[in-house]
Amino acid sequence: MRKLQSQGVHHITLVGADRQTSIDFWEGILGMPFIFEQPNLDRASESHLYFDPGDGRLITVFTDENRKPDPGRTPTDIGCVHHIAFAVSRATFQQAVERLNEREIRNSGVKDRGFMDSIYFEDPLGLLIELASYRFEPPAGHSHAEVLMEAHRIRVARGDYAIAEVHLADAIEALTERSRPSLSADRAPKNPY
To answer: Which residues form the VOC domain (predicted)?
Structure first.
């Protein structure tokens, strides 16, 4: 059977409370421009707000002025969303805890994830949000996913527990050597495993 091949996330839609709570959080705290609003075409009593998370794709929120924010943690049952992670630059990431603390937003502090660093906090409706910053840049012509797939192969071959920076460095080297020819006769491809 043929696949329905995805080409990326088109948008994520969340159920919000009132309009201003969404604008204050998504644009006011996370810096996502509020780009347009229209009625929820499936429920006339709701509004549909659209925000740009930074890559031109969309985060949208259904709002209703009769709903009040409930900061209790959103469900994490099977089939529910656990959290949403947003990429931030290294420079922004280094300032994130301080900026969250200035707003008195409880957060996890920096969490070491081996190939990236993370900070977690909840939105005004209890949805867990992650700010994520990679510890590497992929070589020209390659994606973060390609580097992580190669790093995973190296990690598994070595019997290591999780991807670490050494796996990333070796993956970047392997991808670079495979994609860039050299006139050097003694440059034999190395087995990174």
So the answer is: 8-134
pTM of the model as a whole? 0.90
Contacts (Cβ under 8 Å, ≥6 apart) of 97: 107, 109, 110, 119
Residue 65 tokens read as 């002025």
Three-point CA angle 120, 66, 38, nearest 5°: 80
The 10s digit of each residue's pLDDT in 58-113 is 999 999 999 999 999 999 999 999 999 999 999 999 999 999 999 999 999 999 99
DSSP codes joined into one string, 59-72: EEEEE-TT-----S
Q: Which of 190, 193, 136, 138 is CA-nearest to residue 164?
A: 136
3-state SS class at 116: strand
168 and 130 Cβ atoms separated by less than 8 Å: no
Which residue has 């209890």 as its token pair? 126
Residues 20/92, Cβ–Cβ less than 8 Å:
no
